[in-house]
């Protein structure tokens, strides 16, 4: 019987061969055999210098125990040509190194490190079965508790609410070229009945998501993303992919299939849960309830909605030049500004900057875009739009009058704040994929 260097015997055997269980792997050198399925492998690089540190792996044995593996950079060429995700291997001789304290992908205290005398070979005939994968799901409370600690990387599963700023009511159009250039994509995802979370997928994870999403015959709903890092951005919890991240959708793996069954079977239309005339009253509704009425074409009127700001939309003007009399949009005439409101008594007018800022918000049910108009913007920032515009030009006197003022810090600093928004919904507000909702007042 082959022995570990510390004298313990191996726990599994068949066909005369002895294999050590991952549960018995301890720190130090081992003259022993391991048998495992290679779940995943990826390059580990220095985050600053980008130099190759080694090849990291996720392995699972026949008892379902998961452990992390590591191949030093000088030995990668020896093993990489024969490595294939999902294949089963035998490894002879290895070193049990201490599992790293940061960005861990497995619970085991040890890491299987390939040593100078390690020998790995693929097993084509396997007498026993191996699990294909193993996931580590945690609750929103766990993500909150581990935020910014750079400790364990856990997996998240949920249903997508927004993909690259687009809702799933109509299939989102994902631009491969754009995503490869920006190197990231943002998805808003909700796990069961928890809050909506902002998920950032970077580099290879973003590319994999885009390819998988576009290849699906039907618009996918369920998303499983592995080994995410928790961060707080603008005061709001966010999830970020790592180099070890993998992406799964609807029917890819058993957890996504189970979640899809739950979601499709126990998620009735919200519209059937609320009376149709509620939206016309000034009552507090969730974003999902408002969207449900909008889908049915009966969401016209005023309501209140408590939501958290998670972003201020850049790339479009956050203000417009308004008529000083009626505050409608003013346009350039032959010699002066002209009010576009035919009922306005001012034929020519003096232009005044007014808010028309687009913000991304969420609650426990959905994510949406709100448009802050006029006094709503002032109530949120504490400053008039004209004051912010004037301050910018005073600090940047070289800029011409036609220069578009960038989004001010007064708006950006509101990210992470939760408010009760008074919203008004008309046909204009939910045309297009973004279904932006107009905010008329804010209760601070």
Automatic annotation (TrEMBL):
Domain of life: Eukaryota
Gene3D superfamilies per the UniProt record, alphabetical: Nucleic acid-binding proteins
Residues covered by the Replication factor A C-terminal domain: 305-436
InterPro entries found in the cross-reference section: NA-bd_OB-fold, Rep_factor-A_C
Protein name: Replication factor A C-terminal domain-containing protein
Organism: Brassica campestris
């Amino acid at each position: 019987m082959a022995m570990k260097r510390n004298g313990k015997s191996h726990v599994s055997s068949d066909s005369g061969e002895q294999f050590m269980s991952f549960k018995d792997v301890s720190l130090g050198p081992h003259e022993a055999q391991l048998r495992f399925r290679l779940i995943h492998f990826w390059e580990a690089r220095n985050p600053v210098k980008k130099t190759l540190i080694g090849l990291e792996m996720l392995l699972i044995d026949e008892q379902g125990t998961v452990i992390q593996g590591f191949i030093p950079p000088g030995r990668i060429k020896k093993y990489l040509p024969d490595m294939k995700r999902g294949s089963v291997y035998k490894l002879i001789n290895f070193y049990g190194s201490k599992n790293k304290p940061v960005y861990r992908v497995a619970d085991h205290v040890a890491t299987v490190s390939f040593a100078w005398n390690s020998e790995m070979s693929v097993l084509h005939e396997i007498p026993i079965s191996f699990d294909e994968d193993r996931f580590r799901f945690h609750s929103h409370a766990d993500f909150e508790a581990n935020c910014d600690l750079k400790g364990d990387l856990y997996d998240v599963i949920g249903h997508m609410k927004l993909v690259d700023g687009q809702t799933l009511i109509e299939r989102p159009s994902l631009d491969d070229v754009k995503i490869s250039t920006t190197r990231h994509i943002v998805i808003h995802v909700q796990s069961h009945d928890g809050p909506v979370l902002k998920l950032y997928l970077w580099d290879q994870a973003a590319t994999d998501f885009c390819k998988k999403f576009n290849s699906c015959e039907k618009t996918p709903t369920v998303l499983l993303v592995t080994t995410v890092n928790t961060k707080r951005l603008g005061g709001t919890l966010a999830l970020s992919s790592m180099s070890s991240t993998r992406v799964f959708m609807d029917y890819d793996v058993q957890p996504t299939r189970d979640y899809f069954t739950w979601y499709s079977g126990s998620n009735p239309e919200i519209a059937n849960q609320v009376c149709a005339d509620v939206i016309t009253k000034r009552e507090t509704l969730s974003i999902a309830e408002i969207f449900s009425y909008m889908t049915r074409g009966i969401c016209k009127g005023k309501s209140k909605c408590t939501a958290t700001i998670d972003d201020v939309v850049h790339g479009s003007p956050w203000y417009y030049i308004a008529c000083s009399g009626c505050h409608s949009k003013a346009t350039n005439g032959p010699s002066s500004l002209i009010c576009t409101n035919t009922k306005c008594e001012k034929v020519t007018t003096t232009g005044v900057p007014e808010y028309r800022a687009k913000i991304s918000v969420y609650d426990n049910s959905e994510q949406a875009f709100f448009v802050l108009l006029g006094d709503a913007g002032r109530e949120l920032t504490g400053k008039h739009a004209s004051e912010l515009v004037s301050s910018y030009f005073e600090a940047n006197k070289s800029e011409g009058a036609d220069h578009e003022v960038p989004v001010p810090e007064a708006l950006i600093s509101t990210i992470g704040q939760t408010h009760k928004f008074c919203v008004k919904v008309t046909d204009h507000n939910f045309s297009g994929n973004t279904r932006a909702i107009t905010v008329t007042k804010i209760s601070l």
